[in-house]
Structure formats: structure tokens, C-alpha cells
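pasting for the record
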Amino acid sequence: MRRGPAQKALAVVVHRSVILAFTAFAIFPFYWMLITAFKQNSDLYVGASNTAHNPFIFNQAPTLIHLRILFQNTLFPTWLFNTLWVGAIVVIITLVLAVPAAYSLARLTGRWGEYLSIGIFLGHLTVERAAGSQSVADAERVTAALRRGISVLVFPEGTFVRSAGILPFRLGAFKSAVETGCPVIPVTIRGTRQILPAAEWLPKPGPVTVAVSPPVKSVGRAWTDIVKLRDEVRDEIARRSGERLVGTRTGSSPASSRA
């Protein structure tokens, strides 16, 4: 059921109001800390019977007396120095230990080394879209993961735009699927474009639908089979999403393909 203009406007007002309320709730403690730090004692300690007194503003001129007491009559400067010193030591230790550890992790080889790398990075495999040689190497990592029986979730468009439409799919993942004989399960997500459009930071309320289609598997291993598998999966996702195909890509040669 489609919502009318009045319902859409009301939803926007409610959504913005909720965000504003949470923002005020999060900011208020910092505002209260700041204003009480510079209030005079006679402005802070006022009986509740004085209804003319507003505790959220300066009723008297601000003062620095509290800060002078804090820095001159207490051990706060010592505690502050110790905190900064310990923080600096922690940063130095982290850098000294983390850089060699990261280098060692990047050089892990073999079956268990690859498993450990994937486990540490939560199974996230990045694919470089610009550099051709790095893109090929990243695609080979995906192929290696598939050969070990690890399921891989791929977003084949490689980017996200505001306007509706299914962008061209990159061939790298489908090449890996054909080479390893693994089926591709098309998963269609509807509604996220309206909830969080491209170039926006705040999500909007709305429904999200996830549709899982039957597996699609290539019967051959030729380059035309890779292109056919990509096109079949793309057509299925376009059908389930209700969006049109944008910038349909023709079959690329193996030398020019990117993951």
C-alpha cells in the first residue's frame, strides 16, 4: 500500500523529531558539565522553592574559581599528567607490536595461515576495483576460499548510486564460481535504497525485503559460460527487485576483466 503525501510528510516529521530528541539527550550531559563548571556557588545551590531561578542558564556572571581550585588545590594536574603519560606509552607499545604483527599476518601462507587471516579479519575480503594486477590477485583469493569450501558473499555491482537500477555486474566473482564449480545463489535486497540513499548519512524508516532465489550453476567452463552466468544472476536479481537493468555490459575479454 502506497502512502500519500500527508503520510510521507508525517513520517519525515516523526523521524526527524526522534533524531532531534536523541541528539538533545546525548548532548545535554556535556552542556550541563560545561555550564556548571563556570557557575558561581550562589547560582548553583539555589533552593527548589525559588521558581524564578533557571538552572539551565547563567543567572549570574560566569566564574573561573572552580577551575582554580581544581588545578591549584587538588592533585588533578598530577592525575591528568599520569593519564596522558600512560596513554602515550600504550600508543607506542601498540605501534611497536602491531606493525610487525600485521606484517607477519600478511605473509601467512598455507591452508591454516589463510584460515587464520580470514578469522582475524572476520572473513572480510577486499577487492581492488582500480588497479588491474591487484584486482586479479584479490579475485584469486576469492577462488582459493571457494576451493576450501568457504561461502563468499559478493556485491557484484561494486558500488551504490542514488538512482534506481541494477548496475553492471563485475565478472570476477562469476569467474571464481565457474572455475571452482560452485553455484551462485542470487540474493535480492529491496528497500535499502529508500532507507539509506547514496550520499546520505541518516537512515529513514521503511521496510526491507530479502529474497533468496534458487542456485544458478554454470554447465561449462568457457569464458562465454562466465558471461552467461553473470547475466542470468543479474536478470534474476533485477526481476526480484523490480528495477531495470542500467548500462548493460557485454561480455568482456579475459584480459580486461576485473573482480
